[in-house]
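step: validate -> pass
step: tokenize input -> pass
step: predict -> running
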Amino acid sequence: MTVLLSSRSLARGLFHHQNDFDINNSYQPCIITHSGTSCNPTKLGEASTGKSSGDEKQHRTNIDVGSRRLEDDNNLPPLIDDCSELDHSRRIAIAKSNGFDYNEEQGVQTILDALTPHEKQHMSDDNMPLRHYRADKGNVQQSIRKIKATIQWRQEFCVEDIKRCFRDRNNPDLPIEKQKELNNLAEVIAKENETGKIYIRGYDKEGRAVLYLTPGRENSRCEIDNMRHLVYHLERAIACTRHKSGRQKVCIVIGYQGFRIENAPPMSVVKHTLQILQGHYPERMFRAYICDPPLVFRVFWNVIKHFVDPATLEKIAFCTGKEGKALLERDFDTNTTERQAGGRKTLRKFCSREFLYDTPHHCTFDEI
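step: predict -> pass
step: emit ->
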């Protein structure tokens, strides 16, 4: 029994994160600048202060990214670029092999220049262009197509309403019809969440929110409601990470207690899930831990893995036996994780209503 890692970088545990990064009330897209062995996040549009490693000066770039602000951004921790130097080096190598010149500052600027004012206004956040550029390894034209598609999808799928439905469902400042829409959306997500098949609890050792998925608790066959439920938790996990540590990625733990082949989702749901994760949330997953999968899942995995992007496959770890336990203990404080993630203690039972209705959007279950 072992832990199977698709990437040598995961096996080696090579992480080079920096947090010497400052923001003033809001943040701009960041780039990675390299000097020697350092990896230094730098805001686009801001010249180097000379305090970063190597004291290399950066050219000022003026980029209009709209006036969006995160909630309570005065209380947010400084934004940390959740990218390692190894990640950056590999992207450069892949881009070069495909005939692209990898330059994050120029690439982000080109993407922003291709967006309309309306599209810029509806970006999820200021770093959205950078994540797409990185995910597409310097293929800027592909990044432009994908970010435009994602911005359109976010509007059509009403992602902002999904994010705020529990908070604003009874907001007297909103029209009655909008309150009804948000209430209906909240009821749909609450129904999907009754069994606790997806929820967020705790953080890894570097402050990334942990999103738990338990397919054995599946309680719905409505594909669109399943996707709304998934998107709600992705958005919430991202918000939790941002408020906790300033990072931008989340961890996903998939446990298989009670899983049977009849719990396996239809292939259309699998494809839809991958489309959302890979197409609309690039560079958001730090790692996925598939914990103690039963033999029946391995049959299912042999089918669905062909639809998983190679870059995503590299972030998936199958955790079994002593080595799987060691990986979980390396990345998490197992005194705070669920049993399925190597947890050593019995934690308080998940309460869906408390999590959805009584806990702030930027907090994980049992955090307050």
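step: describe -> The first strand starts at residue 3 and ends at 5.
step: cleanup -> pass
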